[in-house]
Every structure is written in structure tokens, then in C-alpha cells.
Amino acid sequence: MIIGHGGNSKELAKTLGCAVDDIIDMSSNLNPLGPPENIEKVICDSLVKIRSLPEPDAATMRKGFAGFHGIDQTQVAAGNGTTWFIYTIPKALGSKKVLILGPTYSDYKDACLMHGLAFEHCLAKEPDMFYPDIDEISRMAGQADTVFICNPNNPTGSLILQEKLIYLIQKHENTVFVIDESYLPFVDRARDYSLVSKIKYKNLIVLSSMSKIFRIPGLRTGFLSAKNNLVEKIMTYYQPWSVNALAQAVIEDIFNHPEKIEPFYRKTREYIKAEKQVFLKSLKSVQGLQIFDSSTYFILARLTNGATSKDFCKRIGQHKILIRDCSNFFGLSDQYVRFSLKERQSNQRLADLIIQAVKND
Fold this sequence. Notes:
The protein is of the alpha/beta class. The chain has helices at residues 9-16, 39-45, 59-69, 82-93, 107-114, 134-141, 162-171, 228-235, 245-256, 261-282, 309-317, 344-360, and strands at residues 24-25, 76-79, 97-102, 118-123, 146-150, 176-180, 204-209, 222-226, 289-291, 298-303, 321-322, 324-325, 336-340. The relative contact order is 0.17.
């Protein structure tokens, strides 16, 4: 298991002899705008709720999510982040052979290792700009009973069209496809790509994170959507009170005001689109760095000047900025790094440091 998927702000601060708040963390994939303004107020106003047990199955929270997406509440499970579902799904489904579309998030692999399950990766290739080969996925999916697909994918930012995923789901009826849409709210016209409304398929599970888009990772909240029979299998392993009282209060408040959700999404998308454009323009003519297209706000790059990701991240870190060393993603080497954009000043500072670091190698 990888402890900490991004960088370690406390460790870097200790190394540099500065305060943790002085570190700019551009290694973790969270909304650069921060959480909606009222979330911290909701938490403060809800502190009294920690004196009592929360709803054991987070029913009100599930109802809000289901209503927003136009599906039945019985087709939704709420959990302690999507990570809980990732580690539970293979066991609950009785998976024997798992296929993981990569290079991607390590927890799909770690979930298989935890349960002693056979797994293999279908790796997207750099010459294809890390866009997955649907035919290759289909060939390998026919030999698996469970497939994990992160869409859009972390760390590559590649996005598979809805119709291509449906093609796979329909073709392989005996294979369960787990589509992790944790980063989809950051994508323009996200509803055109989402499969939450397509859970009529008996072999489809969709994961939806609240942590990234609303920047509340510490609250640990996420949802699973699927047909009732699959939800029931997952709930066999569900522990009562898995979602704490403060997390439930925040998510309930979000879905109690559905008219605010899409404007918040839209504001976020417009912001990161503008920031990404400026950031990429700054690096356009830089030699020694290959940048890959991304559908979202984190960007994968390969160092082509002989530098290693470890040394490169260390060099950037000396200036109190954390970026992601991608050498521990299966399918990537020690030439890859990832940048997660923040506000303009930090983005420009990072761009300047990247240019300087690449030139000095």
C-alpha cells in the first residue's frame, strides 16, 4: 500500500525548516478553488451532532445524491470515501481475476493484493498520449470478471467517451465494470460522460467522490451507484455508521441546495480551464519536458533531459512547492511527474521553476 498518494507537506516543511503552511502542495488532486464558502459554517453549526450516532446507512445523504442524479435511492450506497468501496468491491463480488486499466491509481491494485486476487494491467501507451486502446481493453476484459477504469484517469488525465464504455459493458455482460468518476466533475459537460444515469446495466458500478470537487478529503465521503443486486452485495460488507455525523451534515447540506451545485461545478471548470491555458502556454517552448493532454486540472509530464523524477521533485521542493513523483505508478518510470494546478500565482511560480530546473539539467 502506498501511504500518501501525493507529497508529504510536513516532511518537506521539516526538511526546509519552515511552517507547513508555507508549503504549496501541487502534488494532490483537489479543487484549487477550495470548498464552497458555507461548508465550514455547516461543520461548525453541526458540531453538536458528534454527541449522537449518525444515521447508520447515511440514508438522507444517499437520498440527496440519488435525487440529484435522477436514480432510485436503493441504487446508491454511501461510504467513507470511494477508497472504502475500491477495497470492498473485489471481496463483495467474489472476484477471481481483475483487470486494471493503467497506468493509474494504486489502490485498485492494492485492493487485489489485500484479498489475494489475481490481477493484470492493460496499460495505455505513451505514443498514444496515454489514451486507452478500447480493442485491447475488450480483448482482456473477456478474460476477467472485474475491470477497474478511472475516468478521467489519474495521473494521465485521459477521458474515455461514454459510448465506448457502454460498448465494453454491453459486449462483456459477465464482466463487472467499475468506473471511478472521482475527477469527472472537473470536466466540461461531465453529464455527457457520466455513467451514473446508466446503471440499468447489471454489470456496471460507478464510484463518485465528493472529496476532490468539493475539497473535503478529510471528511471521507463518496458514493457507489449500481443496480440493486450489486448494491446488496456491497452492503453485505457495510459497517453501520461508516459515514460520520459531520460528513453526513455537509453532504446533506450540499444536496439540500441542488441549485448551487452546477454553478459551483461551472465556476471550477472555467477557472481551471483558464489557469491550465496560461500554465501550458508558459511551458510551450520548454525543451526537456513532454506534456501530455489532460481532460482535467492535473497534468502529466515526462522529463526528456535525463533528469529523474525524484531529483526533479526535490529541486522544485527546495522552493517550497510539492509536485508528484510518478515513478510509483505501475506503467510509468522515474521520468514522470504530475502537476496539480492551483491559483495563478502558484501556477506561474511553478512554471518558472520548471523552466529553470529543466534548463539547468
